[in-house]
Amino acid sequence: MRSFDDLVAEAEAADVSGWDFSWLDGRATEERPGWGYQRLLAERLGTVGAALDIQTGGGEVLAGALDAAAAVPRVLAATESWPPNLAKATAALGARGGVVVADPDEPPLPFADGAFELVTSRHPVRAHWGEITRVLRPGGSYLGQHVGPESAFELIEEFLGPLGAAARRGRHPDDEAAAARAAGLEVVDLRTARLRMEFRDIGAIVWILRKVIWWVPGFTVAEHLGTLRALDARMRHDGPFVAHSSRHLIEARRG
């Protein structure tokens, strides 16, 4: 394995914009849920005339689903808050007939009541169920794949220390389903998965913490050098660092 300094320097210099994780190919792996979110998204997109994707990132997942869909919605919009992602999403989705709207990921959504037959989101920071209900037409549906509780906590706690009960309960699928119902939606599908993650070198860990900035807020190599060196030594001796992500699929319908 290459030296600690070489791996860290490479990861610090790498691009982390957009929502493309291909830099980790050969360096980290994560199991995928068995339900196949992008396939389900493509199926739903092919049946509606107006669709909205919330917190679309760089538009990669939606673009792939559109390419596989039987038809493209006549009205297609997406929201995103981070400027580097906005540029990527605009390029990816504009070529497929979509419009990307800059939005701070806080209510209200910049769309009229009942504007969409389908609202979707993959890994939203937070689902604002009242707004989702408002912009859905009667009979319309929400389809999302969300990050669940205690996702990647094995890695996060290496840097932050043990997290409390409230943090461990965060993003629980039962709580999200209850919130969706409280906003007037009928939950028609709720599935969960716990998935193995492996990081094979310290560069992969540096890169993922630079990209997923809410895992270890304020992460820098300089600030966490001791922890990184300890992890590097452990991985060289014991093999890949193993953590687990959690995901849930939620589908809800407005009556």
TrEMBL record:
Recorded superkingdom: Bacteria
Domain Methyltransferase type: 52-142
Keyword Methyltransferase carried by entry: yes
The entry's keywords: Methyltransferase, Transferase
Entries under Pfam families matching the protein: Methyltransf_11
Coiled-coil residues: none
GO biological process: methylation
One example GO MF annotation: methyltransferase activity
Identification of the protein by name: Methyltransferase type 11
Lineage, opening ranks: Bacteria, Bacillati, Actinomycetota, Actinomycetes, Micrococcales
